[in-house]
Amino acid sequence: MKPDLFESPDYYNIDDLLTDEHKLVRSAARDWVKREVSPIIEEAAQKAEFPKQIIGGLAEIGAFGPYIPEEYGGAGLDQIAYGLIMQEIERGDSGVRSTASVQSSLVMYPIYKFGSEEQRKKYLHKLASGEFMGCFGLTEPDHGSNPGGMVTNFKDAGDHYVLNGAKMWISNSPFADIAVVWAKSEEGRIHGLIVERGMEGFSTPETHNKWSLRASATGELIFDNVKVPKENLLPNKSGLGAPLMCLDSARFGIAWGAIGAAMDCYDTALRYAKERQQFGKPIGAFQLQQKKLAEMITEITKAQLLAWRLGTLRNEGKATSAQISMAKRNNVDMALKIARDARQILGGMGITGEYSIMRHMMNLESVVTYEGTHDIHLLITGLDITGLNAFK
Ligand code: TGC
Ligand code: FAD
């Protein structure tokens, strides 16, 4: 793979809206990605292996629990800093960002928000340092977009619960130490349970043959009469709203992360278009290529502004779930289109692992599907503006 020469586009001087702390956090994440991710990520993706050696570095740049308070091991940063970290990591690879998103927003966040003080103390520091890795089990084989229909369930067996069911498409499951699992009680109410590797009847088979997110490990969670101690139930919120609150946080991070992937594709294509000569001049001099590049920077700039504004709303506690859906949907779609156009600018070279573009493009096919599909987020906007529910 080529050396990482990435330079971040900032066409509207959005840096002026950032604090010194934001820039410092971003710069640490960017330098780390250049040093530790870019040199190894192509090979990891080609081999379909999650590069476990980067876990310590992710923890050091604050990617595990950026906004979780420091007393619980998090970095205690604001939402824009969280977004910027996700942007820089996904600039390297969406699969690496996935690992960080899951750990922060889908494992640490529910334990912090809905967990008991004992659970916070037991797990959060270890998750922040990467000593423990976690995963989040919501999706089931027959319940993806409609998680409320889940059949995974637990029964009260006196001093413990007995958990049965299966989850599918679970990021980090093959190596996770703990899983935050969403399951129905005997009354049909959804609760979160912390399931630990090693509990009898709990297995995590890996999903192979993915063309996307190859540097991220994906698998199943199988529960066959797993005895879960009662103290592992998250006590402070139940109902579908609890996992959906976690998704709000992860979707926000993805809205930023996708900008990173798009910026990397744009930067690579721009550089290539200025260097590659055909018909006696750089291909960047042809109007058709300029149109692609000009539209890319326009869309990136719009996405940056959307993410920044959403970050300020999140900081003020004012962002709605529907606003988050709009940003996730828009920014991932924007990145996917940019990846496709950027690949064309590179001609044949665009399909090789010499450049990051094809990897980003394939990764983004997952990103546009997970955390709510492109269509589901459109329907969330539709419901928000009309008051009419197209889901049911
Ligand atoms: P609905 O009846 O609308 O809502 C049920 C209850 O939840 C509340 N609620 C929310 N609460 C907090 N945040 C949100 N975003 C919320 N949206 C809804 C709602 O008020 C209600 O509360 P209550 O008290 O009245 O019960 O639910 P529904 O069954 O109609 O479904 C709505 C729908 C389709 C939007 C939702 O289920 C959905 O978002 N589906 C998509 C599923 C999804 O995104 N799955 C993601 C799985 S995790 C993942 O992909 C990780 S990828 C790994 C990585 O990030 O790298
Ligand atoms: P389906 O729900 O079957 O949807 C199929 C198609 O039908 C989609 O185009 C969808 O938009 C459309 N559709 C569905 N309902 C409607 C409707 N009402 N109106 C119009 N169109 C509709 N889940 C987790 O819980 N944890 C994880 O860590 C996790 N990681 C993942 C990692 C990867 C690589 C992938 C690919 C997925 C991951 N997921 C995870 C699951 C992901 O969230 C689901 O794939 C996603 O929510 C969609 O569910 P589904 O695949 O079952 O598709």
From TrEMBL:
Class of this enzyme: oxidoreductase
EC number: 1.3.8.6
Protein name, UniProt field: glutaryl-CoA dehydrogenase (ETF)
Domain Acyl-CoA dehydrogenase/oxidase C-terminal span(s) in chain numbering: 238-380
Entry's Gene Ontology molecular function annotations: fatty-acyl-CoA binding; flavin adenine dinucleotide binding; glutaryl-CoA dehydrogenase activity
Keyword Flavoprotein among UniProt keywords: yes
Metabolic or biological pathway: Amino-acid metabolism; lysine degradation; Amino-acid metabolism; tryptophan metabolism
Reaction(s) the record says it catalyses: glutaryl-CoA + oxidized [electron-transfer flavoprotein] + 2 H(+) = (2E)-butenoyl-CoA + reduced [electron-transfer flavoprotein] + CO2
